[in-house]
Amino acid sequence: METHAPSLHMSLSTGFLSGSGIEEVSRKIADLPGLFADEPARARMAPDTLVYRVQAFQPVPDGTPGGLYWGTTVIQPGQVGDEYFMTKGHFHKLADRSEYYIAASGEGALILMDTERRARWEPMTPGSVHYIPGHTAHRVANTGREPLSFFACWPADAGHDYDTIARHGFSARLLCVDGRPALVEEK
Ligand code: S6P
Ligand code: ZN
Predict the structure, then answer these.
(1) Which atom of ligand 1 lies closest to the CA of 150?
(2) What are phi and psi of 109, to 5 degrees?
(3) Is this prediction's pTM over 0.90?
């Protein structure tokens, strides 16, 4: 019987994906106006400062029921004012779709918010597995001094609703308070 090498490879230590069919997107400081509480501080930073990078393996067309996607996100260490570098965050477009995150390296926080705008967070350390239920917005912050890398697996028909977060934000922000992460409610 013939065997085929898989077309995708992932480093278990860094999450770096290699192979064919990998899509990549980078988010720099210039791409993230309005994301952080201290917008003047963001605007003063070098526009090409990398905040995070996503690699995604999407073997079936977007929206395919039953399909699964796989991806790695790497968030750089850093802060805008006293807020940690973080992802934009989103609900899924098909709102009941859930997702797994697994931290590979670094230290971080998964910030979750339900449809009642109740927020909570889970610490991310290498090997921690995080189940993100449906109807739950999710974003990750890097709370450490090294890049934070995590794997994600999500349904191909989940889609992304960035709009709700762009308009209303999360109800709380993960800030560095006395040198430690604290989830601080928005006023
Ligand atoms: C996709 C999954 C991740 C994020 C990535 C970046 O459902 O949750 O791959 O896309 O961590 O975050 P964001 O909020 O910019 O898409
Ligand atoms: Zn998601």
Answers:
(1) 11
(2) -145, 135
(3) yes
Give per-residue pLDDT as tens, 130-186: 999 999 999 999 999 999 999 999 999 999 999 999 999 999 999 999 999 999 999
Domains of the chain: 8-185 (2.60.120.10)
Q: What is the pLDDT of residues 17-67, one digit of tens each?
A: 999 999 999 999 999 999 999 999 999 999 999 999 999 999 999 999 999
**Cβ contacts of residue 168 below 8 Å, gap of 6+?**
117
By most ligand atoms within 8 Å of CB, the mutation choice from 54, 86, 132, 154 for ligand 1 is 54
Ligand 2: distance of its center to the CA of 182 in Å?
A: 23
* Closest Cα to atom 11 of ligand 1: 73
| Whole-Å CA distances, 90 to 45, 138, 170, 179 | 24, 6, 10, 27
